[in-house]
Automatic annotation (TrEMBL):
The keyword Phosphoprotein does not apply. The keyword Manganese does not apply. Belongs to the HIBADH-related family. NP60 subfamily. The gene is 20195264. Its main location: nucleus. This is Cytokine-like nuclear factor N-PAC. Keywords: Chromosome. GO terms for cellular component: chromatin. It comes from Helobdella robusta. GO terms for biological process: transcription elongation-coupled chromatin remodeling. The chain holds residues 287 to 602 of 602 of the full protein. One of its GO terms (molecular function) is NAD binding. It is found in: Chromosome. The lineage of its organism: Eukaryota, Metazoa, Spiralia, Lophotrochozoa, Annelida.
Length: 316
């Protein structure tokens, strides 16, 4: 049934919307965004929402992470259910499918407060089946649902972030004039549930394979006695130049692997999910499979919560 669902996605995969085309709707003063999950991604998003003057109510499994935002004017919800009850639009951004299920279906979870008129947006990256089930749980209770994984780095400027979303189009438009507007300059509406996840996974899969190629290039360069910064400098002069090469290449050779961006573990998970999608639609993924092995090795060596550039540490 999942492959049937994927066929439907391919059919609906037609329309996209750039933010500037969406006319903002008037927002009431009491309009509140609920935010569940104050990890690296959530922290940056909530900072941007507060900077744009939006009212935000936050919740995090480890409550101490809420304190910083309360000092910035956010309210703190005591449970996910309370946040949904108080907010016009509630957003979740947690690590994986397990975390999302806990948040949604656990005691005092999201579902307890979903009713007609409630809107829920998930920004975590999970598999298509999980997001499809989540969509069904929310909409069968009368709520609106949007799947909206973030692509790109939230660490730097808004230019580097692309929002992709699928699900309820009206909720997408409402998010464009509020949430998306505050975190990115580009938002694409991709249609049926699952399509935004597929888009994020194919994009991250390419990023992963590029990182693997870069890591091996630098590793071979080192063994051959080349100056690695010179390798990177030369790359910047060629059509192959990219921010990814420069930033991650630099992190690889200087061993600056602290993680403020997407962790290596989450990148490996995205690659694994892309490989499962490949199996489902019978698309062989030779390079991606080899890349996955390299990421798994780096993870096994304890680099899971480091920057993705730590893949370099698995090239021996
Ligand atoms: P982080 O920085 O690892 O943050 C993970 C968040 O998920 C953090 O708020 C965690 O709460 C929360 N979490 C983890 N497990 C649970 C459970 N079981 N229940 C509730 N909340 C949980 O990840 P990022 O912010 O970088 O990424 C988030 C997603 O966006 C991920 O899918 C990326 O691929 C994209 P904690 O603070 O540990 O209590």
């Amino acid at each position: 049934s999942l492959s049937k669902h994927l066929n439907k996605i391919a059919f609906e995969f037609t329309s996209s919307t750039f933010l500037p085309d969406v006319l903002p709707r008037p927002i009431q003063e009491t309009f509140t965004i609920g935010f569940l999950g104050l990890g690296k991604m959530g922290t940056t998003i909530v900072n941007r929402l507060l900077n744009s003057g939006l009212k935000v109510m936050v919740w995090n499994r480890t409550p101490s992470k809420c304190k910083y935002f309360m000092e910035l004017g956010a309210e703190k919800g005591s449970t996910p259910s309370e946040v949904v009850q108080t907010s016009d639009i509630t957003i979740s951004c947690v690590s994986d499918a397990r975390a999302l299920k806990d948040l949604i279906s656990g005691t005092n979870g999201v579902l307890e407060s979903i009713s007609p008129g409630k809107s829920f947006v998930d920004m975590s990256t999970v598999d298509v089946l999980t997001v499809t089930e989540l969509h069904e749980s929310i909409t069968s209770r009368g709520g609106k649902f949007l799947e909206s994984p973030i692509i790109g780095s939230l660490d730097s400027s808004m230019e580097d972030v692309v929002v992709v979303a699928s699900g309820d189009k009206e909720l997408f438009d409402d998010c464009c004039s509020t949430v998306f507007n505050s975190i990115s300059k580009k938002a694409f509406y991709l249609g049926g549930i699952g399509s935004a996840t597929c888009m994020k996974l194919v994009v991250n899969m390419l990023q992963g394979t590029l990182l693997a190629g870069l890591a091996e290039t630098l590793a071979l360069g080192e063994k051959l006695g080349l100056d690695q910064s010179q390798v990177l400098n030369i790359l910047t002069l060629l059509p192959i130049s990219s921010q990814l090469n420069s930033l991650k290449g630099d992190a690889m050779i200087t061993n600056q692997l602290s993680t403020r961006q997407l962790s290596l573990e989450h990148m490996q998970r995205d690659i694994r999910l892309a490989i499962s999608l490949g199996e489902l639609v019978q698309q062989p993924l030779y390079i991606t499979t080899a890349t996955n092995e390299l990421f798994k090795k780096a993870k096994a060596r304890g680099y899971g919560d480091h920057d993705t550039a730590a893949i370099y540490r698995a090239t021996d």
